[in-house]
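anyone else get weird line breaks when pasting these?? whatever heres mine. first is seq + C-alpha cells for prot A
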Amino acid sequence: MILHFYIAKRFFRAFLIVLAVFISILLPIDLAEQAGRIASTEAGFAAAFELALLNLPGALYEMMPLFVMLATLLMFLGLARTSELVVIRAAGRSALRTTMAAVGAALVLGLIGILLINPIVAATQAQYDASISRYQSGEVRTLSVSAEGLWLRQGNEERQTVIRATQANGDGTLLFDSSFFTFTSASQMQQRIEGRQAALQDGAWVITDAKIWDLTVPNAETAAVQMNEFVLPSTLTPEQIRDSFGHPSTVAIYELPSFINQLNTAGFAALKHRVWLQMELSTPLMLIAMVLIGAGFTMRHTRFGRTGLMVLTAILLGFGVFFIRSFAQVLGESGQLPILIVAWAPPAAAILLALGLLLHTEDG
C-alpha cells in the first residue's frame, strides 16, 4: 500500500509539472490570439487577458488525456532512470500491479474532472462566449430553452426583441405559438406580437395569423390589430441561431440531462449534447487508457536503449487514440455512428491494446 501511494504521489507530481508547462505555453499564445480577435474594437489588453483566462480552463480540460499520458511517461521514465522499477520488479511485483497506482490516480483525476472541473469549465466557457460576442459586435443574441419553451433575444443597443415559442423546427427558423416583445434602449416595452407560427426569411420574421399590440398607447387592447401575415425585421440568420446554443461544454454535466430533455421537448434533436454527455462520462476510462499506453512503452530499464523511440511511439499512439476519439465524436454528432460506440469504444479499445502490450512485455 505504501508503494502504491508513492507511485500515485509521483504521478500527481508529474501531472502538475506537465500542466504548469502547458499553461505557460498556451496562455501567451491564446493571449495573442484574443488580442487579434478584438483588435478592431476599443477593448484593450485587459480585455484580451480576461478572454484568455476564461478560455484557458476549457482548453486545458480538453487536453487532459494528453496531459495524463505525458505525466505517465515522465513518471515511469524517472522511476526507470533511478532504477526504482528494477527494485519494484525484484520485489515480486508484476508490471500490471505496478501500474494500478497510476491507473487509480488517473481514475481519481477523471472523477474530479467530471464532478468539479466540468462545472467550472462550463461557467468560464459560457462567460467567454458572451464576452467575445459582446466585444466583436454590439448585438446581443441569446437563445435559451426552458420548461416554458424556447426563448430567443435579438437586437442591438437601440432596440431589443425577446421571442418566446412553445416549439421550433430543428434549426430554430420556424417557431410555433410565438410571441414577440420589443423594447427600447431604455428597456421600455413598445410592442407585443403573437402569431400561430413565425418563419425566419431573408432578414425578417414572417409571422402568420398575427395580433399586434401597441403598448405605447393608453388602451393597447382596443388598438390591437390582427393581420394574416406580419413581417418583423430581424438581424438573425439560421447560423446565428444554431451558434446561440453554444458548445455543449457551456452546460455543466449536472444540468445536461435536463437540458437535453428540454431541447427534445422544444423540437431540437440535441444529438450534439447527447454525444457530449457520453463523452464526458467516458473521460475516466480515457485517462486510464492513456496511463496504460504510457506505461506499456516506458516500464523498462533505460539500459535496454531505444528509450527515445519508445517515448515517441507512446506519444504518437496516444495522439492517435485522441484523434480517433475526436473523429468518432464528429461522426456521432452527425448521426453516422451510435452514441455509445462513439464515446466508449475508442478508450475501451485503447485499454485492451495497452493491456496486450503490457502482458506481452511481462511474459514475452
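and prot B, same format (seq, then C-alpha cells)
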Amino acid sequence: MLQRLVLMIALTGLVGALPATAAQLTRPQAEYSADSVMQTEEGTIEQHVYATPMKERQELLTAGGDGVAMIFRYDSKLMWQLMPSERMYMEHSMDKAAAQNKGKDLSKWDFEETVVGDEVLEGVKVTKYKTIATSTDGKKYGGFSWRTKEGIAVKQDLLYKEGNEKHRMTTELKNLKIGKQDPKLFEVPEGFTKFDMAGMMGGMMS
C-alpha cells in the first residue's frame, strides 16, 4: 500500500507542476468524458476523465495496470484521492493548497488571450486560442489551447517559466463524449475508509 501512496503523491505533484491557471481560466460548461494524455519532461500520464461544470474525476492508469482516482469538487473545494484496491481515500482542501502555493493565485497573474482561428481536432470543432500570462513576481507561461464552444479543452500546449527553470506540458483529449455523467462518479464510494497520512507518518516516526 505504501508504494501506491508514494505513486499517488508523485502523480499529484506532476499534474501540479504548472499553475492551475495554466490549465484553463474557466470550467467547461458541459458534462463529458474522454481519454486524456498528458506529457511533461517527467513523463506521460494517461487517464480517463469525467467532468461537469463543478466536478471532475481523473482515473490514472499506472504502468503496472493498477489504478487510482482523483475527484475534484470545485463546489465544496475538496479533492479526494481514491485507492480502490484498499478501499481507502485521502481528502485535501483546495483552499488550503491554494494558500500554501501563492504562485497559483489568480489575482497575481495578468492574462492576455487572443483568438487564432477555428479548427477541427479528433473530429471536433474547436477554436484555437493563444494565451500569455505574467505573474507579479516574474513567473510566466504561454501557449495555445483548442477549446469547444462549451469550453472543453480538447488540446493544450503550454510552457511555464520561472527564472531559469522551464516546464512544458501538453494535454490532449481523445474519444470525447459530451453528455450527462453519473453523479456517483464524483462521490467517495460507500465502504471506503478515510486515510490519515499525518497519523501514519506519526506512527512510523514513533
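btw re prot B: Residues 1-23, 200-206 have pLDDT under 50 and may be disordered. The helical segments are 2-15, 20-23, 94-100, 197-205.
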